[in-house]
């Protein structure tokens, strides 16, 4: 029964995020907010909504292990599986900004998370630091992209802007209802996932850290996985890496920042080890794209192999 509830929770999370993005984008258009700005904020945050809902719900419920494991596990999955599978499907070229700015910034905040958690605790002050960095990243990203000429806008951002622009006009009352339904779906789905995952962990003698790192992390990363794979199959290969890098940055700064402020988090030694591993695979990703300006099939197989090996390690440890 708990597995069925878990699946229902994931469905509510993903559909709720999709509905919320649609409604919020419609509202933004009514107030003449540029499509590019919508794509860089509302749409980007929408793909991280499942992780946010699960981590915040876990934090409120005092399940700190699951809260941080969900974020770290999602980042594992995004880099190793989402990019791994995408690179096997097609060669993934990487934009200059992603190599010079976005990936180094992701590497910096991944290492920062390890430093902040070295005392096996994430305090409200630590959460505030993460949220301040999130605001800095968001503002700098918006300024950078709005300052570009239309011809310089990246493929992924153009795709998002076009998708938002071409969506149907919806009346304001209906839009507000859609947003409300989306929020309810996200919150309710997050609660169901946390409750059912905790019961599964208890029933099988698994730690909440392990469940958060595997089952929950995979489920909340489905939006990124589907978005990237579909984009690659359509030839929009630049979207895959940008989607993953952006999602991982949002997960660390926004999701963990909010969770830590709501309820200071005690970090297990296993979660700290996982955070170190997350930093190492981010370094590996940076080496791959810095050296080759792309991800290819060989890189894809390496990334997937690392994920399978580390998951085996987490299960037997």
Please provide the ordered H/E string of secondary-structure elements: HHHEHEHHHHHHEHEH
Low-confidence stretches: 149-167
How would a crystallographer describe the biggest sheet?
2 strands, antiparallel
Oligomer: single chain
Question: What level of helicity do the residues show?
Answer: over 70%
Secondary-structure content class? mainly alpha
Shape: globular
Rg, Å, rounded: 19 Å
Count of helices? 12
The tally of beta strands, per DSSP, is: 4
Gap from first CA to last CA: 27 Å
Keywords: Membrane, Transmembrane, Transmembrane helix
Transmembrane segments: 68-92, 104-122, 128-146, 172-190, 210-232, 239-261, 267-289, 298-316
InterPro entries: K/Na/Ca-exchanger, NaCa_Exmemb, NCX_ion-bd_dom_sf
Pfam family, one: Na_Ca_ex
Write up this protein.
The protein is mainly alpha-helical and 317 residues long. Helix content is 83%, strand content 3%. It contains 12 helices and 4 strands; from the N terminus they run αααβαβααααααβαβα. It has helices at residues 2-30, 35-60, 64-89, 96-116, 124-146, 155-165, 172-203, 208-220, 222-233, 238-262, 269-292, 297-316; strands at 92-93, 121-122, 265-266, 294-295. A two-stranded antiparallel sheet has the order 1-4. A two-stranded antiparallel ribbon has the order 2-3. Helix 2 (35-60) crosses helix 3 (64-89). The protein is globular. The chain crosses the membrane at residues 68-92, 104-122, 128-146, 172-190, 210-232, 239-261, 267-289, 298-316. Keywords: Membrane, Transmembrane, Transmembrane helix.
């Amino acid at each position: 029964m708990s597995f069925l509830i878990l699946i229902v929770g994931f469905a509510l999370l993903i559909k709720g995020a999709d509905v919320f993005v649609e409604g919020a984008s419609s509202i933004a258009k009514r107030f003449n907010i540029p499509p590019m700005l919508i794509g860089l904020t509302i749409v980007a945050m929408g793909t991280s909504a499942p992780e946010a809902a699960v981590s915040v719900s876990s934090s409120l419920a005092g399940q700190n292990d699951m809260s941080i494991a969900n974020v770290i596990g999602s980042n594992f999955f995004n880099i190793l599986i989402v990019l791994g599978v995408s690179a096997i499907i097609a060669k993934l070229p990487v934009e200059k900004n992603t190599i010079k700015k976005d990936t180094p910034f992701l590497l910096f905040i991944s290492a920062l998370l390890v430093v902040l958690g070295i005392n096996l605790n994430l305090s409200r002050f630590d959460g505030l630091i993460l949220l301040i960095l999130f605001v800095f990243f968001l503002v700098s990203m918006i300024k950078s992209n709005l300052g570009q000429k239309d011809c310089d806008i990246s493929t992924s951002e153009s795709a998002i802007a076009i998708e938002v622009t071409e969506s149907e006009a919806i009346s304001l009352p209906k839009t507000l209802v859609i947003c409300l339904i989306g929020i309810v779906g996200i919150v309710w789905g997050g609660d169901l996932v946390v409750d059912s995952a905790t019961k599964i962990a208890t029933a099988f003698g698994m730690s909440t850290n392990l469940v958060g790192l595997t089952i929950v992390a995979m489920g909340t990363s489905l939006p990124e996985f589907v978005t990237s794979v579909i984009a690659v199959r359509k030839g929009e290969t630049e979207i895959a890496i940008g989607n993953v890098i952006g999602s991982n940055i949002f997960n660390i700064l926004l999701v963990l920042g909010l969770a830590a402020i709501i309820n200071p988090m005690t970090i297990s030694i296993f979660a700290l080890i996982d955070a170190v591993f997350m930093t190492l695979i981010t370094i590996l990703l940076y080496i791959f794209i810095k050296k080759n300006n792309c991800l290819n099939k060989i890189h894809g197989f390496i990334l997937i192999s690392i994920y399978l090996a580390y998951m085996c390690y987490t299960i037997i440890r």
